[in-house]
């Protein structure tokens, strides 16, 4: 009997030590800024899920998590780490640490890890926390003959929060700072609403996605948007985007809200080629103002930087240009308290070659966005991209 009691006490002590270890590491991760943190151990495999509102990019948070977890669980055979966005699982990293070297693989198989983590406690709940992000807006246009170019600079603070799983509520006023040579009917002269919408993701994560958004969308539209996607491989994804919109704009006569009358539908393919680090995007369908055509973007990723070119062919007209997303501020931003003030992770800008004639006058090739930070770096949950840059991070090549 005494022998059985000793055995039970040893097992209880081991369980309590493991539980304490899980609590300790989760508390440390929350103190570092991670949110919605879950950690569990099963069969010597460490499972974890997290949301990263602090570290720049979609891969750097993975690196911090793996380094911290490997220091706590020295004997772990493998780590299964899932990144979340508004508590929706996006990408899973499978990693092992042997002889001070990391080997890893990233994919969209999140179901197994999340099923195991369903029975664990969550720390650092993100619900109800408000992010106020100060986005700069810069416009340069040389379509007029009486001035060399029109210019405008504005600040657009986005106020965003998540109240339940998969939701995102955004309000973004645009406040002009510079724009003295703009005409009186130019929207850029006036304070206006950039985004005021609510977005909801309905899928549980993984290879399928389904989102809907409604409200005022960027730029100068109001209405509803539905977006469905499927990751065919770890490098190739397909997406269908359907919107029903009306114009919402301001000029020298005030604000104008036009009843939704524009149906747009676009099919998109997105491929990331890891050896050249090229992201190729093909878009085809009906743009906002009823023109049919296609667009091709080729973007080169340099870690945190993304620089690319594009071409558009629609209703017999064409356009081309370049775009970029470059990092702002540091690689880590502190976000303490219920209301967090911050700068955006990236500044993105696009140059259009055509600024007049039919393409511009008939508003061809126009799209819209539903989130304030949409670009090719922020929230770029592409498994091949994350795997490649995370491996470089863990090897000390890029920090």
Mean pLDDT: 89
Per DSSP E runs of 2 or more residues, the count of β-strands stands at: 20
Class based on secondary structure composition and strand pairing: alpha+beta
Q: Which architecture of the largest domain per CATH?
A: Beta Barrel
Total tally of structural domains: 2
Q: What report would you give on this structure?
A:
This is YjbH domain-containing protein. It comes from Xylanibacter rodentium. Residues 1-19 form the signal peptide. Keywords: Signal. The chain is an alpha+beta fold. It folds into 2 domains: 22-125; 130-384, Beta Barrel (Porin), CATH 2.40.160. It is built from 5 helices and 20 strands. It has helices at residues 2-31, 60-72, 111-117, 357-361, 383-394, and strands at residues 35-42, 45-51, 78-85, 88-98, 101-107, 130-141, 150-161, 167-178, 192-201, 208-217, 221-231, 236-251, 254-257, 262-273, 278-286, 292-302, 305-314, 317-327, 339-342, 346-352. The protein has a 15-stranded mixed sheet that branches. A 5-stranded mixed sheet has the order 1-2-3-4-5, with helices on both faces. Strand 4 and strand 5 (101-107) form a beta hairpin. Helix 2 (60-72) packs across helix 5. The longest helix is centred in the first third of the chain and has 30 residues, at 2-31. Residues 4-20 have low confidence and may be disordered.
